[in-house]
Structure formats: structure tokens, C-alpha cells
Amino acid sequence: MAGTPPPADAPADSSAGGTQRTIGLVVGGVGVVGLAVGGLFGLSAKAKKDDSLEHCPDDPNRCDEEGVSLREDALKAANAATIFMIGGGALVAGGVVLYLTAPSGSSSSGSVKHLRLATEGGIGTARVTLKGAF
User: CB of 89 within 8 A of CB of 31?
Assistant: First the structure.
């Protein structure tokens, strides 16, 4: 029929940029939380190292059993701080990229078809992967 309008694809196309911007804000927000947690672990590491010095009266590298334990705890907290800071920074950067590269509502070629964020971490390692089909 000549008078029948074509199916409306505009709402899906116009929301693609908004969805990507929302995902960018969420990813960036998680990154900011990761940076904050990393900062807290860093402060904890410093406090534990400082506490260990009380158990090392003559030489900072010769401690009693409590001092050695505090140093080991400080090292674990410092490693956790590093992981959270790297991961948080990567997530903030990824969130900014997602937000700034979101298509405008008038473009139909820039809709996000698939987006996946994966994080992995362990003592001394961290990895953040963002994959998508646009």
C-alpha cells in the first residue's frame, strides 16, 4: 500500500548513543571506585610499613617477628593498591572513550551491536578487556 509508512527504526538508532554514553558513565564510575579502593589499600600499606618500624629498633631491615609480619602485610596491601589503581585507571579511561565516541542520535550507522567488559586480577597482575562490535 502506497500510504503505509515504513517501520520506524529511529528510536533504536537514537538510543544507541545514549546507551553507549550510559555504559561509559557506568564503566568510568566503577573505575573511580577502583581508584578509591586502591588509594585506601595504599594508605593501609603505608600505615603497616610505618608500624613495622617500631619493631626494627636498630636497622629498618632487621625486624622482630611482628615487624616482619607487618612488612609482609604492607607488601600485600601495596600489591592490591597497584592492582586497583591500574584497573581503576583503565576503567576510567575506557569510560571516557566510550562516552566521547558515542554516536549522535541522528546517525544510524553507529549503533552498538555488542559490548563486553571483562576484568581479571591477581597478586601482581591485572587485566581489563573491552570488546565491542559497532
Answer: yes
Residue 8 lies inside a defined structural domain of this protein: no
Owning domain of residue 120: 20-133
pTM for the whole structure: 0.64
Assess contact for 31 and 98: CB atoms under 8 A.
no
Per-residue tens of pLDDT for the chain, all 134 residues: 455 555 554 444 456 688 899 999 999 999 999 999 999 999 999 999 999 888 887 777 788 889 889 999 999 999 999 999 999 999 999 999 999 998 876 645 555 566 677 777 777 777 777 677 65
Residue 13 lies in a domain: no
Distance of alpha carbon 113 from alpha carbon 134, whole angstroms: 6
The answer as to whether 10 is a domain residue is no
Smallest CA-to-CA distance from 110 within 6, 21, 8 is with 21
Number of domains observed in the structure of the chain: 1
Q: Residue 5 falls within a domain, yes or no?
A: no
